[in-house]
User: Fold this.
Amino acid sequence: MPTTRIENSALPAHNPNARGWASPGVVVSAVVFLVALHALSPSNTQADWRVFYDAGAHALAGQALYRPEDLPWVYKYAPVTAYLFAPFALLPQGVARWAWVLLTAAMLVRSYLLWASQLPRPLPTWAHGLVLAVGLPFFKHLFRYGNCDSLLLWLALESEALRTKRPLASGAMLALACVFKPPLALLVLVALRAREWQRVAATGAAALALLALPALQLGPARAWGELQAWRAMLADSTGPMLCANQNQSVFGMACWVSSPAEGVRYTLLAAGLGAVLVASLAWLLVALARADPAAERRALTAVALYCTAVLSPLGWRNNLVSLMPLTYLLVEAALRLRSRATWAAALVAPAVATLTGVLAYEVLGRARFQLFLELRVLGVCAAVTAVTAMVLQVRVARGVSPDAAHTRQDVAMDARGRF
Assistant:
């Protein structure tokens, strides 16, 4: 059967900056801000946000951040990060809460549109809506708890966007993201592979400066003590929460058949699950690099961001907002392949995740929804989505589309029939 290379014309020409009520920017902003505003209902306490607010107040007062009596709602980020919440602590709590939610919503909108702008061709507006639907179970949960994952996603993607034009600023933003969440150092490995030495050096220098910054207020001894308290708190609090049903990482999946109390067996199982997933994604990245080197960096960044959630000991449901770049790659590739079978295969896992995250609680009730979480349905669907996105990217890079081949063959047969 003849085949044909997929050209860019397979995607309709839509301008992501186009004006109008149905432009991608308007659609993404409307959906994200509506979900964010819904989270501000009086019945929602936004427990994580309350921890951030208190941490900002403690930082201003020079008080200890890591208090055992605050468990499980204890501040879990590096000491310097608490100063980012200090301006909010100067505001009345209600005003600060609104400001934080609107700011994080704006960062999430920026993240969606920024990544979409990095794609080979602009996507139609409905495709952005589809990506939002896939991400809804994750960012809905993010706003419900008032977490900072949209801040980290924005820092990472903004850093990527600035990496060639402003490597020092790019490195500083990546450093702040890594100080918040050390697994984001995977993006430093991506930069090392690309030989972005200036950016890597800026990241390392900025990270060290940020970690040392509290010494200006607390003095070296107390600042070092806070760093030690942070590490001790993480060590003490992580183990008991590994099998919490909101943990959708490979460490949560390992709880299907084992528990952290079993020690080596549990650790090997979690490591094995992670190794299988990483090996699959790495193999697909190598295949993509061989077929289309220009697409490799974009896919490598998307995979690294997703891995910061799925490979973390505590990869909460809201952490899976980092799947968004891979979701865009999934939809972009499916559009270019133009196959109904491809669309069906691509959307099975995202559809299950969306239905589980959005409707299961309301339809099935709290008890049955907890069962879905225990089964790590969202984590498994995210992993399948990530692998499927990479498979489709490889297919696009290799330039073979069954539907396009059929179309070309039919046209040729019609032409022979006419003459």
Notes: Residues 264-291 form the longest helix (28 residues). Residues 281 and 387 are 6 Å apart (CA to CA). Residues 243-419 form one domain.
